[in-house]
Amino acid sequence: ISFDAVDSALSSLKNCQSYINSGMDVATQVALDLVESFNDEEDVNNMEKAMLEYATMDRELNHYIKAIEETINQVKREKPENLPDLENLVQEKFLEMESKNSDSDFERNEKYMYFKDQLKEMKKQYHGKDTIEQIDEDIAVTRSQMNFICPITQMTMKRPVRNKVCGHSYEEDAILEMIQTQKLKKKSVRCPKMGCSHVDVKGSDLVPDEALKRVIDSQNKQ
């Protein structure tokens, strides 16, 4: 049996995944733009719906790719005399996976969770401070600027990254250098934010803090 055509189809499906990922990146940036420019909440909600649709498509595509791969591996393993109906076998496996779908699946989609996290932070930065400023504008500005300071360099961050585990942000180069230095000593890195109890900061836990970077850039322009 020649599986060249199947391999070609699989390759095309995996290309589709890259398009979905690009779409999710664009939707994230647009949503953050909307919050930053104080657009209508409905526009932001529409971007959230778009992200959910992307995440759903991604899950469906993953299931379909997995169903094809499992079917082909099964046929290669069993080597039947008569080739079974591959399309039906794939469809059965696909429907079985889809029947187990739940909302918690989206928690495993890194781009979707990153979108949710950054949107929440962006709303906090741009809408949350309104009420604080009504109490005392000076205190609000001071608090806000303190969040711009990297706990390692003690300087305003230029490329902040956010720790998915404890939620603290650091200058990207500074935290990566710290992780590398401690790795050579075979030691783990404690979160450098004062008072944080997280004792094992890993490079894989760091994501770009786009929301914070936008606020810092906006402040610098002023």
From TrEMBL:
InterPro entries recorded: Nse2(Mms21), Znf_MIZ, Znf_RING/FYVE/PHD
Lineage of producing organism: Eukaryota, Metazoa, Chordata, Craniata, Vertebrata
Swiss-Prot/TrEMBL GO biological process terms: double-strand break repair via homologous recombination; protein sumoylation
Main location class: nucleus
Protein name: E3 SUMO-protein ligase NSE2
Recorded metabolic or biological pathway in which this protein acts: Protein modification; protein sumoylation
Molecular function GO terms recorded: ligase activity; SUMO ligase activity; zinc ion binding
Keyword presence, Lyase: no
Source organism of this protein record: Sylvietta virens (Green crombec)
Family: Belongs to the NSE2 family.
One GO term describing the cellular component: Smc5-Smc6 complex
Keywords recorded for this protein, A-Z: Ligase, Metal-binding, Nucleus, Transferase, Ubl conjugation pathway, Zinc, Zinc-finger
Record's subcellular location: Nucleus
